[in-house]
């Protein structure tokens, strides 16, 4: 594989709050996304996973005390890499929707209720690819067929309100993929959907990815979904990347104590068999971003906590084995058991 | 007091129809949210109800709690229907049957402190004692759900989702209920918090003997907590049976599809393909509602609504095909 | 920003109210005392700080007493209309059904009329006086409150925290008074504040047209009316009561607008 199409380095996002202390939503996140690869960013609320995506797309509310720093090098075909975080608005708009596009959790709020489906897909194509209205309409119908919608010729004339949740998410994917982006950022795209519909959408995304070769950043809290779509997992906890590894490696032998417990808290069918046995849990709760603990931010909840070792300084993300990074001072001891 | 061996909650042929009017004078077709469902919940038993959006699972829970009117059918709580209860019986019902809602942010009055929230049920039922007694009750309830008594003077917005759901549960426990209907009570929570709350429900059942109707869309979660599970599809219960039996050998193709679609960390990407990519819209009159999505459909499935068949061990299914052998995710793992 | 607006309004209203209550006691003039030797004195002439009117009455003391009457009428009308509005709006919002449909349609249609004509029609039937004005103004103002309360109650009625206590056996009264009302007090305060301002304006209209406070009792509206004849030679007789009305109304509107933002967290964040 050639170099990564996206290299995020030391991405930090801070929200200033009127009066209160600043909120460091993301603290120095670094990860790569290879061409055609699916990277799942996993985390619980206030882990910074969604803010990371918004920052990459330049969609965080400008001004109002939001400070974004770091670097996100994005490599387009045969071109030099551009830093998404340093790009002027105009250039960013040209990239958004064409080279990088996105799918959000709630398709209803991201679709314009007063425009037909066809108009919305065609608009993207006309802006970015310079197609004529007729070409764009024809292309829109083709895209709707690609995302598995029956009667695409009729659906182009529908309004978003006339479609079911699953159909709307297919339309969102059609719009996102209309310009054949190199990178798709999907933020909880199936969270609002029923499980059977979710399964269909995930299968669809995988199929289209194989066909069109785009990379996907898949943001989710659902580890089961991750197991099915991702090549690589980036686990985030309280604004930091705490583990980054190939999917099977991460799920089968996670190194960071947080991921180790997190993956086991997810109910599995095996757990159903162990009647009335309690699920493993993580004690305490996610720290308030304004008052994160000293040292490793996970140490107050960690079963492997060592005073003086874990609560002194923030551990850095170190390479454990090839392609597997972990942010824990004690990972070697813990892995040895 | 009713017969102690009889079920605590007995729902019979419950039907909910929403008349749908089109335009000013037009008569539209009615929307059948519940189509004659029946189930029982024993004392101290956990019954899971699963289904996708629009399956009617929440409607069933709300009608059972008598906060939503029904079109037909019976709800018997301790042998008496809330509709025919006198004042005293009704008070008892409101005390012994409690509900917990999905959204931990919307279900607590934002203007009340935890103390006021927990005192409300006592006040409503005239159960307030001396301030010291009340306080002891509040602290005990908070303790049961794993929250410290120091939080009594805080307001809901100061808590995380998981903590709020614990407060909701503590409030329900103030009245010492026999039945708790939990409507998607863990769906809005983070994974690790969800595990904590699921464990809490299991504790409550074991320590206090509370019966729970656990309504959710996440099959593994429901499976862990429930003794029996009812699977709903478009207003009907299509399968009802013991959890392990259902996960080992589902009798209804829809149950099989749900089990297959629910992503689990130990499942592989291959399982995605087994879900039928089918038309999502299927307003079918007559016949089995699941027919258009079913791999096993026969011509007969279009003719009549499949009647409920009772199999061994009280397992019930509403599928015409009695020849199906479908392996669930636990096939080959459970004994028997 | 909005907080400052509300504070400015608050200062204006408090200063005015304080002046109305205290100053008349300190001034050496009676608002009804006629002094034909000193008619049409301009402001700042000797002991008559704001001058005198066409029959030599002290303008300042008449303004203050008139403003006091206006504020009192405004507050009483507000109290009456808030009470009626909360009661009707609370019940219709909570129970819905045909009573709600009928009542709200009536409210809508009445609110369609220009208020001033409605007011004058009503005023021509009653015995002129402060109480009548309170009654008439409340008769118009409660509908606004009712609509707001109705809307808020309807929006919150189906919220889970209300359904939750209903499932626990709460009575309608408990749900309305303990659960719903505390969550809409903000909105009620906002409408009520704005209603005080409206009531003061309405009192001025009615008195100006002669159906309100009767002479010789001072009233801001009546003073404006009297000043009409002498607008050319002695404009201050009209300007001064106008200013007082403006201060009161603007001050109250500032408070209302400021509160509106403070009460609606979504707007507050944007501001």
From TrEMBL, chain A:
Intracellular or extracellular location(s): Cell inner membrane
InterPro entries: AAA+_ATPase, ABC_Ni/Peptide_Import, ABC_transporter-like_ATP-bd, ABC_transporter-like_CS, Oligopep_ABC_C, P-loop_NTPase
Transmembrane segments: none
Entry keywords, A to Z: ATP-binding, Cell membrane, Membrane, Nucleotide-binding, Transport
Every ABC transporter domain range: 8-263
Keyword presence, Lyase: no
SUPFAM superfamilies: P-loop containing nucleoside triphosphate hydrolases
GO biological processes: peptide transport; transmembrane transport
GO molecular function, one term: ATP hydrolysis activity
Membrane protein topology class: Peripheral membrane protein
CDD domains xrefs: ABC_NikE_OppD_transporters (cd03257)
Domain of life: Bacteria
GO cellular component assignments: plasma membrane
Family: Belongs to the ABC transporter superfamily.
Protein name, entry field: ABC transporter ATP-binding protein
Species per Swiss-Prot/TrEMBL record: Gluconacetobacter liquefaciens
TrEMBL record, chain B:
One of the Pfam families matching this protein, by short name: oligo_HPY
Keyword field: ATP-binding, Nucleotide-binding, Transport
Any GO BP: peptide transport
Membrane topology field: Peripheral membrane protein
Annotated compartments: Cell inner membrane
GO CC, one annotated term: plasma membrane
Domain ABC transporter: 9-259
Chief localisation class: membrane
Family per record: Belongs to the ABC transporter superfamily.
Protein name: Peptide/nickel transport system ATP-binding protein/oligopeptide transport system ATP-binding protein
UniProtKB/TrEMBL annotation, chain C:
Xref: InterPro entries: BP-dependent_transpt_permease, MetI-like, MetI-like_sf, OppC_N
Keywords of this entry: Cell membrane, Membrane, Peptide transport, Protein transport, Transmembrane, Transmembrane helix, Transport
Chain ranges of the ABC transmembrane type-1 domain: 67-256
Main location: membrane
Membrane topology listed for this record: Multi-pass membrane protein
GO biological process, one term: protein transport
Intracellular or extracellular location(s): Cell membrane
CC annotations in GO: plasma membrane
Spans through the membrane: 71-95, 102-123, 129-149, 180-201, 236-256
Family: Belongs to the binding-protein-dependent transport system permease family.
Protein name in the entry: ABC transporter permease
Organism for this UniProt entry: Gluconacetobacter liquefaciens
Lineage, uppermost ranks: Bacteria, Pseudomonadati, Pseudomonadota, Alphaproteobacteria, Acetobacterales
């Amino acid at each position: 594989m050639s170099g990564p199409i996206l290299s995020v380095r030391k991405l930090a996002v801070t929200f200033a709050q009127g009066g209160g202390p600043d909120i460091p939503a993301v603290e120095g996140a670094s990860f790569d996304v290879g061409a055609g690869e699916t990277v799942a960013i996993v985390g619980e609320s206030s882990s910074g996973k969604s803010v990371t995506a918004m920052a990459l797309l330049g969609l965080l509310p400008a001004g109002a005390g939001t400070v974004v720093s770091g670097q996100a090098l994005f490599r387009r075909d045969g071109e030099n890499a551009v830093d998404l975080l340093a790009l002027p608005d105009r250039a960013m708009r040209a990239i958004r929707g064409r080279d990088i596009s996105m799918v959000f959790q709630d398709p209803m709020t991201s679709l314009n209720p007063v425009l037909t489906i066809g108009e919305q897909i065609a608009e993207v194509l006309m802006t970015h690819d310079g197609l004529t209205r007729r070409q764009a309409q024809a292309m829109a119908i083709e895209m709707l067929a690609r995302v598995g919608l029956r009667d695409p010729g009729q659906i182009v004339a529908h309004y978003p309100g006339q479609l079911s949740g699953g159909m709307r998410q297919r339309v969102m994917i059609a719009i996102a993929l209309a310009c054949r982006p190199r990178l798709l950022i999907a933020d909880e795209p199936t969270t609002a959907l029923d499980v059977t519909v979710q399964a269909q959408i995930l299968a669809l995304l995988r199929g289209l990815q194989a066909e069109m070769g785009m990379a996907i950043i898949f943001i989710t809290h659902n580890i089961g979904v991750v197991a099915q779509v991702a090549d690589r997992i980036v686990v985030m906890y309280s604004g930091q990347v705490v583990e980054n590894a190939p999917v099977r490696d991460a799920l089968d032998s996670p190194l960071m104590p947080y991921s180790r417990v997190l993956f086991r808290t997810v109910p599995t069918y095996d757990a159903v068999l162990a009647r009335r046995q309690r699920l493993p849990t993580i004690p305490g709760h996610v720290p308030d971003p304004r008052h994160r603990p000293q040292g490793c931010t996970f140490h107050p909840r960690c079963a492997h906590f060592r005073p003086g070792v874990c609560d002194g300084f923030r551990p850095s993300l170190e390479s454990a084995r090839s392609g597997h990074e972990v942010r824990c001072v004690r990972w070697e001891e813990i892995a040895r058991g | 007091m009713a017969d102690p061996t009889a079920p605590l909650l007995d729902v019979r042929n419950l039907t909910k129809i929403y008349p749908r009017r089109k335009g000013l004078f037009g008569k539209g077709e009615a929307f059948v949210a519940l189509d004659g469902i029946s189930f029982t919940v024993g004392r101290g038993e956990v019954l899971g109800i699963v289904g996708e959006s629009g399956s009617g699972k929440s409607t069933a829970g709300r009608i059972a709690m008598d906060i939503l009117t029904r079109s037909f059918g019976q709800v018997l709580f301790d042998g008496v229907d809330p509709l025919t209860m006198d004042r005293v019986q009704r008070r008892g019902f409101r005390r012994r049957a409690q509900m917990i809602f999905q959204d931990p942010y919307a279900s607590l009055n934002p203007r009340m402190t935890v103390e006021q929230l927990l005192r409300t049920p006592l006040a409503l039922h005239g159960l307030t004692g001396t301030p010291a007694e009340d306080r002891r009750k509040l602290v005990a309830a908070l303790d049961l759900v794993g929250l410290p008594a120091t939080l009594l003077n805080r307001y809901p917005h100061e808590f995380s989702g998981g903590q709020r759901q614990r407060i909701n549960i503590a409030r329900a426990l103030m009245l010492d209920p026999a039945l708790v209907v939990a409507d998607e009570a863990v769906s809005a929570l983070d994974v690790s918090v969800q595990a904590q709350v699921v464990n809490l429900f299991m504790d409550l059942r074991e320590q206090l003997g509370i019966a729970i109707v656990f309504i959710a869309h996440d099959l593994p979660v429901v499976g862990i907590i429930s003794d029996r599970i009812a699977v709903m599809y478009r207003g009907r219960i299509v399968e009802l049976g013991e959890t392990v039996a259902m996960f080992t050998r589902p009798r209804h193709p829809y149950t099989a599809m749900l089990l297959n679609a629910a992503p689990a960390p130990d499942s592989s990407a291959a399982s995605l393909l087994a879900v039928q990519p089918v038309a999502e819209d299927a307003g079918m009159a007559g016949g089995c509602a699941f027919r258009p999505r079913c791999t096993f459909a026969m011509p007969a499935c279009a003719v009549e609504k499949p009647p409920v068949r009772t199999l061994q061990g009280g397992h019930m299914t509403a599928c015409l095909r009695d020849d199906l052998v479908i392996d669930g995710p636990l096939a080959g793992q459970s004994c028997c | 920003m909005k907080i400052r607006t509300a504070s400015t309004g608050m200062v204006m209203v408090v200063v005015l109210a304080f002046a109305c209550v205290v100053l008349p006691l300190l001034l050496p003039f009676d608002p009804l005392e006629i002094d034909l030797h000193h008619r049409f004195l301009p402001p700042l002439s000797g002991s008559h700080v704001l001058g005198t009117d066409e029959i030599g009455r002290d303008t300042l003391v008449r303004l203050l007493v008139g403003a006091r009457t206006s504020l009192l009428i405004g507050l009483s009308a507000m109290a009456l209309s808030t009470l009626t509005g909360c009661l009707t709006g609370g019940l219709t919002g909570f129970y819905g059904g045909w009573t709600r449909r009928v009542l709200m349609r009536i409210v809508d249609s009445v609110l369609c009329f220009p208020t001033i004509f409605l007011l004058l029609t009503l005023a021509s039937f009653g015995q002129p006086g402060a109480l009548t004005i309170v009654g008439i103004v409340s008769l118009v103002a409660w509908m606004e409150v009712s609509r707001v309360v109705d809307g808020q109650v309807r929006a919150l009625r189906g919220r889970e925290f209300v359904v939750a206590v209903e499932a626990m056996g709460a009575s309608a009264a408990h749900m309305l008074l303990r659960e719903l009302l505390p969550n809409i007090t903000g909105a009620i305060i906002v409408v009520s504040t704005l209603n005080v301002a409206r009531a003061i304006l309405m009192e001025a209209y009615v008195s100006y047209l002669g159906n309100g406070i009767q002479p010789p009792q001072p009233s801001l509206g009546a003073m404006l009316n009297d000043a009409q004849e002498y607008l050319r030679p002695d404009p201050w007789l009209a300007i001064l009561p106008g200013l007082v009305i403006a201060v009161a109304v603007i001050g109250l509107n500032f408070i209302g607008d400021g509160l509106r933002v403070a009460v609606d967290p979504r707007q507050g964040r944007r501001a």
